[in-house]
Amino acid sequence: MSLLRASATIGVFTLASRLTGFARDSVIAAILGTGMVADAFFIAFKLPNLFRRLFAEGAFSAGFVPIFSTLLTRDGKDAAQRFTEEALAALTLTLLVLLAVFETFMPIVMLGLAPGFVSDPPKFDLAVELTRITFPYLVFVSVVSLMGGVLNSLGRFAGQAAAPVLLNLMLIGALLVFRDSLESNGHALAWGVFAAGILQLTGMAVACWRAGFRLRPRLPRLSPEVRELGRLMLPAVIGTGAAQVNIAVDIIIASLLPTGSVSYLFYADRLVQLPLGVVGVAVGTALLPLLSRQVGAGDHAGATTSLNRAIELVLLLCVPAAVALTLIAHPLVHVLFERGAFAPEATDATARALIAFAFGLPAYVLIKALSPPFFARKDTRTPVKIAVFALTLNVVLNLALMGPLLHVGLALATAISAWVNAGLLALVLRRRNQLVLDPRLRRALVRGALALAVMGGALWFGVQFLQPILAADGIAPWGAMAALVAGGMAVYGLGLQLLGAATIKDLRQLARGR
């Protein structure tokens, strides 16, 4: 499967998950708003996701996929399956120990994670209770990520990309069905997270079974492959751990800011996650197995070409997304979220955070594309060192900007540190001659910039013209927003075609792997 086709497969399912995620967040915003229950639930939802990225999607995947791909190619399916079962046993044991510790000491954990809640005992107690319900999700979703690594290495990307749709649908259903029937609406959402983990795990197990990998339980064993996995993971754990510490610092600082700050950042981040997931995660997920095979076969020229095409896709799609989110931030938040308990003041605060996050969007996605070349060569140390530096900078910027800019300062600090991270990754790859911009990429970037300027102007005039409709209530703003988005995409796509930055012929060649 070519890079574009694999990325498109992941992107389509990720788009579905993001759209259902918007529906989920719209329902949550209307019913919970940005008050005490919303802040408590978002903390409860954030904690297992922090550790999921640490143990599953970050360090574990970076070490697992290259080893699995090598074993599958060199020694066959049986060896790859044995390694997978051994890795699953080690991961599960680690997660169960972590789960027991956190469930026991959750009040102490919450004291460190959200110290600003201490002055509001009901809010603090609710956050502790909801987090105890959601934290087992970590175990389920981490195993899902491991199974996703297996399927991705086999060229089957749909299963893992579609799994988040189940989470979104489960949360919508839980909130609508059990609204006001449990202790709080936050409890309905927390139990929805728990149930979604079981549903996602079941779905991925079936997908693996259909792919011919019927994973059997094993006792943990330190085989040579598991030891190599640990060796590759350790630097990535430090780097990913630094990232999670940084996110935890963001939460701690946000909890010290006025009530609603945690929620503003959550809703703004959700909007940025659409292009980040559809493009960045898709390209990064598809690129790692492809580069692993090319590097393993000694095809370094092919690896360089694949990286160029990944950067081309990322920049041509994500820079216009960042510009669009900046230009339509306020009307977008108004249309998607402003109803029920979500007040106009929350719209203004969320839109400001969205603009700050959007500034870093191209960098967030570039990191997804620039990290796989290191991991494919089993170099997990270099990106970790860069990540630690960038995240340290993020903490410093958080503390410097939180005073004058409140929650917007936290979003801006994240964006700035992401650009530093992406720039340093590119610099190291360039010095190693692993990132050489080919003529096609250079041409596409210059011509794409011209198409972007035209799109930006068209969107700005569109927002001014449709402002009375966008500011209204009811169905009309949805139609106006759809027209803005579709019009911006059409203008940009036509500009790319006319300027020769990305023609239909180019896309066909990419889809065929040329």
Can you walk through the features of this model?
It is a single chain. With 514 residues, the protein is mainly α. It folds into two domains: 3-437, no CATH class; 438-514, no CATH class. It is 84% helix and 0% strand. The chain has 20 helices and no strands. α2 (36-74) runs antiparallel to α9, α3 (77-104) runs antiparallel to α6 (137-153) and α10 runs parallel beside α14. The longest helix has 39 residues, at 36-74. The chain is globular.
The major β-sheet equals: none
Order of helices and strands: HHHHHHHHHHHHHHHHHHHH
Radius of gyration: 22 Å
Helix and strand content put the structural class at mainly alpha
Shape: globular
The total of beta strands comes to 0
Please work out how many helical segments DSSP would assign.
Answer: 20
Stretches where pLDDT is under 50 for at least 5 consecutive residues are none
Distance between the termini: 11 Å
Q: How much helix, percentage-wise, in residues?
A: over 70%
Number of domains: 2
Q: Roughly what is the average pLDDT, rounded to an integer?
A: 78
Beta-strand residue percentage: under 5%
List the main descriptive attributes of the protein structure presented here:
514 residues, mainly alpha, 2 domains, 20 helices, 84% helix, globular
Outline of this structure?
This protein has 514 residues and is mostly helical. It is 84% helix and 0% strand.
Strand and helix layout:
Elements: H1 3-32, H2 36-74, H3 77-104, H4 106-113, H5 121-134, H6 137-153, H7 158-177, H8 185-210, H9 224-256, H10 261-296, H11 300-327, H12 329-337, H13 344-359, H14 361-370, H15 372-376, H16 381-405, H17 407-431, H18 439-470, H19 476-499, H20 504-511
Helix pairs in contact: 1-7, 1-10, 2-3, 2-5, 2-6, 2-8, 2-9, 2-10, 3-6, 4-5, 5-8, 6-7, 6-8, 7-8, 9-16, 10-11, 10-13, 10-14, 11-13, 11-14, 11-18, 12-13, 13-17, 14-17, 16-17, 18-19
